[in-house]
Amino acid sequence: MKQEPRSFLPDPADLRWLVRSLDLRSFSAAAREMDVAVSVVARGVDRLEAGYGVRLLRRSTHGLSATPEGAELAQEARGLLAQLEDIGASLSDQRSRVAGTLRLASSQEICEALVLPHLADLQARYPALRVELLADDRVADLVTEGIDVALRTTVGHSDLVVARALGRFERRLYAAPEYLRLHGTPADPSDLQQHHTVTHTAQGPAVTWAFRNAQGKPLEVTVRSRLAASSSALVHHALVGGAGIGMLSCPLAAADVAQGRLAEVLAPFASRTVHTLYAVSSPGRRNSARVKAVIDFLVKASKDRWALAPVR
Predict the structure, then answer these.
(1) CB of 159 closer than 8 Å to CB of 241
(2) Whole-angstrom Cα distance, residue 279 to residue 257?
(3) Pairing of strands 263-265, 171-175
(4) How far does CA 79 lie from the centroid of its chain?
(5) Tens-digit pLDDT profile for residues 54-98
(6) How far is the first Cα of the chain from the last one, in angstroms, to the nearest whole number?
(7) Are 45 and 21 in contact (CB under 8 A)?
(8) Is the entire prediction scored with pTM above 0.85?
(9) Helix (H) and strand (E) counts in the chain
(10) How far is it, in rounded angstroms, from Cα 103 to Cα 20?
(11) Ramachandran angles phi, psi of 273, nearest 5°
């Protein structure tokens, strides 16, 4: 970012206008959220641009977007604003320490199954906490997108995130009973190539599924899907609707299996591969009261109510 006189100290409110305008891609949306005039938000961003001597936002018919300098400032501002909220919370009484806004990212499927059913309990416990849910199968960047907590099934080896395991689960094949009645039930993984299969668009047109044969040895079958969807939630809904056979996480399919809307397919050949669901945060936010409180809450919700195998 262009170096400006050291005497310029931005108003935190102006930094908030910048961040929220970028999040919502609109001055007017940010103004409505904060219940202020649009001119208040626009003037705040103008003051930042004047103070730093750089252009921070691009305006177009598609909404607001950040310049490189604006993206850099917004990234730093998110961390600063989070710290200011934590300071305010630490000076208040114990019950209201968990306060401010927490941005939680996950796939739509996990959000619907794990987060939404327990939001009322979370809000009752922490009335000063405001939660922003970002539901997308895409892996969100914690820093640049200002994500406090993300729910992920892959983490990798990185010092850039702090991960806490919520539980373990398997992925298996499912189909609607009506689909199996019309098209038959595959008796062997190789039979899948004669069936309609449903996959995620991120996997491409050809998808390889892992199994184990009768002797317990690994076995792979590649299928070309007849239907591909851009989210795991859409794959799930398509399977319930009878579109074919597809792979789902066992905890997400459990309710539909119990109620007869889905049936497991090729259970004796399941790979038994164990996956882990993690709550992920950036190292700079792991000590935030609201981040710790929400992750602790998700650990309990996962263990007691979502039927995930506990982490041992």
Answers:
(1) no
(2) 26
(3) antiparallel
(4) 19
(5) 999 998 888 889 999 988 898 888 878 877 776 665 665 544 478
(6) 47
(7) yes
(8) no
(9) 10, 14
(10) 12
(11) -70, 130
